[in-house]
UniProtKB/TrEMBL annotation:
Organism: Zophobas morio
Residue ranges of domain DDE Tnp4 in the record: 151-307
Family per record: Belongs to the HARBI1 family.
Origin superkingdom: Eukaryota
Name recorded for this polypeptide: Putative nuclease HARBI1
Compartment(s) of residence: Cytoplasm; Nucleus
Keywords from the named record: Cytoplasm, Hydrolase, Metal-binding, Nuclease, Nucleus
Purpose: Transposase-derived protein that may have nuclease activity. Does not have transposase activity.
Primary location recorded for the protein, binned into one broad class: cytoplasm
Segments traversing the membrane: none
Any single GO CC term annotated in Swiss-Prot or TrEMBL for this entry: cytoplasm
Record GO terms (molecular function): hydrolase activity; metal ion binding; nuclease activity
Necessary cofactors: a divalent metal cation
Amino acid sequence: MARFFPYLNNNGGNNYLRRLKQRLRDENDAFDLTDARFMELFRLNKETMRELINMLEPHLAGGTRGHKISKEQRILAAVRFFASGSYQRSVGQDCFINLSQSQISLAITEVATAIETHLHGFINFPGQEEYPGIKAIIMERFNVPGVIGFVDGTHIAITKPKVDVEHQYMNRKGYHSKNVQIICGPNNKIFSINAAHGGASHDAFIWRNSRINDVLHERFITGDRTSWLLGDSGYPLLPYILTPIRNPPENSPQHRFNVAHRRARSCIERCLGILKARFRCLIKERMLKYSPAKAGSIINACTILHNIMIHRNLPLPEEHEIQNYMDDHEDEDLFAQPVANEHEARIGNLAQQNRARVIQFYFN
């Protein structure tokens, strides 16, 4: 190419390319796309995207250097990356984005941080006044009483972090990740997210150090004895977390409980499948090539966008995509772990009694 365009080898060539990209950005408006193509690229429809832009613009800086990149363009670029998970360079070469790799990287960080400032506006654990409605939906669908949500951990692959913290992010499957605790409801809405822990952390450890554990423990202490989450065997059996029973006899009440438990808990697996099908930057094959802190910010941003889409009742991904990305996260068995102290023993006994009552009244 240099034989025919020798000026591209000097600063004049760089300026030419910069002006060309700016002109392409100016001449190609993503909002001119068809509605179907727009949603394919950005996951949001045009109306929701415009609302997102209005919400985020006050949190973004004015522009970059002499050739300003508009706030709208930075938001579109970041959301395009969240949706595709493609490398920054390929996103930047999209004719509707046309930003350099460094500009894309800055936009992703800036926009994810701006979205994250709205975390508590879009992701909230339900109050006790909301419990009856949630319990009724889950009871009707799965015949499991008292359930207010589903909890699980999912590993989001990240690039190798700094050596001094690398051991905290190497998971038991042999790659670096964040183990993200998510709690969802029966209609795919995310109630809680905790993206602060590395892949080496066990689900039970993350739970014990989570704010929601404290919330539910306090509600239990103050009298709520009939509300619980469903978790797999990676979680401790608590008065407010129901876990399955180990190796129950076939066709026994305990076995029927496990079958119903597994069917109901598929809600969290489906929620994770929808989240990852919508925002493929979260799937293992794409990997977040950021520091753990920045990766956590991107994960939080994607869950907020997911809840916005649930609230707006936007179409779900194709069923085969959801199935492809439904989580297969199986954690270590906690059944045989020793009790740490007398208080935990007492709580454990209460939890055993609670689960036994549920089985007696609903699965006999």
